[in-house]
Amino acid sequence: MSEYFEFQWDMRKSKIGDVRMGGSKKYYNVCNEPTEWNQALFRIKELIGASMDYALKDKSCYHDNDFLLRFLFARKFDVDEAFKLIIRYFAYLQKNHAIFQRLSVFDESVQLALRDGFPGILPERDRRGRKILVFFTANWDPALYSLLTVYRAMLLSLEKLLEEKQNQANGFVAIVDWSNLTLQKSSHLNPKILKLMIEGLQDCFPVQFKAIHFIGQTWYLEAAMAVIRQFLREKTRSRIKLHSNLSTLHECIARDVLPTELGGESPPFNPLEWYHTLLESSQNNTSNGVNAQSRPYYITQATIYSTPPPITGKNGVSSGKKSSGDPARNSLLSLDDDI
Fold first, then answer.
1. For 275-283, what is the mean pLDDT?
2. 3 with 127: CB under 8 angstroms?
3. I need a labelling partner for 116 at 20 to 30 A (CA). Which of 37, 45, 101, 261 fits?
4. Would you say the C-alpha torsion 143, 148, 151, 156 has a positive or negative sign?
């Protein structure tokens, strides 16, 4: 019940917020697009245009208001902080370009992750209007797709979710259920990939995770948790909640928005719903002529991806080698091997 009243209060507050420019405070309205939004956009475009930072050598994002608003919302319209986030975003993309090559729902390994619910997106929002991402780690099959692929599927999903202003403003909640994750599977939680994920999601992408709930954490996950903790800022650490049982989770998130797997009152979790949403959206973008090449600052691509056939020997038997027919795929495989 407390969550309900807190939501009501937050909804009243969400209609106004700070726009910090030159030390003065102004206001914006989440529901409409007032002149204050335009003032913030004008200021951040000035900073982009004047920037000599190598990360912003391509300034084509200058004309995309929807793209720039993601960063303004992520930093509560603090223009200077939003500009710094943009710099880190582009620097991260350039430094880790292999991760984003051919990032599409048509990538077969990404499809496997999405079908298993990595990530899963619950249909209902919490009382504060935030979308809920769920991860049932027992469903992960590291023999079929790596942790890096899970990260790619997550980035693809967040890119789609950020198309909605409500998600930009309210942020997200993540629930990670560690129950039944085997010791063997936990050995695939690569520390370098975990660091890469934290760096991107915490410091470089325009996303706000307002709460992260861990359920059923086992003793053999302590090594991975130790790696995670050392790269988290204090603000992020304070948002991680550990739950030994579901009752404490229900104190934070109402049961009527949670699936039965999490002790909720909603229908059982179906990972295919979000997968089909992404698939339909990508197909619509392709059929409508949306060209990712004209928006290189977005991390996803609208082109259809297909895995090249394996290299075969004289008798038609696969040689077991990586195909050289797709540079993007080979680059990603190489990154996975190196890490």
1. 90
2. yes
3. 101
4. negative
Q: Which two tokens stand for residue 17?
A: 């917020």
Please give the C-alpha separations between residue 109 and each of 61, 112, 159, 172, in angstroms, as whole numbers: 29, 5, 18, 25
Nearest to 100 by CA among 154, 53, 64: 154
60 by Cβ neighbours in 10 Å (0-12 / 13-18 / 19+) ranks as: exposed
* Each residue's pLDDT tens digit, 63-104: 999 999 999 999 999 999 999 999 999 999 999 999 999 899
What the block records as the tokens of 219 is: 């003793």
Q: What is the pTM of this model?
A: 0.82
What is the rounded CA–CA span in Å between residue 224 and residue 220? 8
Q: 101: Cβ–Cβ under 8 A, 6 or more apart, which residues?
A: 327, 328, 331, 332
Cβ count within 10 A of residue 180? 12
- Cα 238 to Cα 246: distance, rounded to the nearest angstrom: 20
- Beta strand 131-136 with 120-121 is antiparallel
Question: What is each CA distance from 30 to 15, 18, 115, 172, 301, in whole angstroms?
Answer: 5, 11, 33, 16, 29
- 109-113, 258-262, 303-307: least confident range: 303-307
User: Can you tell me which residue has the tokens 């019940």?
Assistant: 1
Quickly state the pLDDT bin for 282 (edges 50, 70, 90): confident
Contact call for residues 207 and 169 (beta carbons, < 8 A)? no
